[in-house]
Amino acid sequence: NAGVTQTPKFQVLKTGQSMTLQCAQDMNHEYMSWYRQDPGMGLRLIHYSVGAGITDQGEVPNGYNVSRSTTEDFPLRLLSAAPSQTSVYFCAGGRASGELFFGEGSRLTVL
Amino acid sequence: GENVEQHPSTLSVQEGDSAVIKCTYSDSASNYFPWYKQELGKRPQLIIDIRSNVGEKKDQRIAVTLNKTAKHFSLHITETQPEDSAVYFCAASRGGATNKLIFGTGTLLAVQP
């Protein structure tokens, strides 16, 4: 099993551009989520999903959209990138027990 | 809003010494408290967790304690080794939702050989 796979690993955008961070999991996790990690601020929940067709907002959802058309995929969309969205993004799949399995992370820079 | 405070932000110990990291949470309904370890440039990985019906849990050199009354929980690492050097994050569930976590701001642990 590959686990949780994120692409791309690195991306540079200009302000106002849009992009999608891809996340796929082959662990049959019902729960998937997106976090952003910024220096001194830990991991903050952006959006999450408890199953196909169901998504909800986390702590910092503004500027991001998600969808969950299949159990395996959970893409994160930035519609109009801003410098404040410069961060490292982690996708995670989760078990009912609570353990999160993180992807390798995607480093995004918005100029 | 709900939050988790973590201290210290940095911790330096000598190899073989013990390390303790403390967290305080605000949501009285939180019932799940995991700890994640993140090595430099890597993804966070679960190292131990505890639920609200348990006061202490051990796994070899790692232990976690929980004081629900005070809303405190702590990570204890004994006989530290250089490979324990990493950033450690505590987290608390939002209410009973074990998959919705509020993370602390992290502790950079450096184990000096």
Task: Describe the protein.
The complex is a heterodimer of chains A (111) and B (113). Chain A has 111 residues and is mainly beta. In chain A, strands 2, 4, 5, 6, 9, 10 and 11 form a seven-stranded mixed beta sheet that branches. Chain A has a four-stranded antiparallel beta sheet with strand order 1-3-8-7, with no helix packed on it. The model of chain A has no long low-confidence stretch (mean pLDDT 94). Helix content of chain B is 0%, strand content 60%. In chain B, strand 9 and strand 10 form a beta hairpin. In chain B, the strands form two sheets. In chain B, strands 2, 4, 5, 9, 10 and 11 form a six-stranded mixed beta sheet that branches. The N and C termini of chain B lie far apart (41 Å). Chain B has 113 residues and is mainly β. The interface between A and B is medium-sized, with 24 and 25 residues.
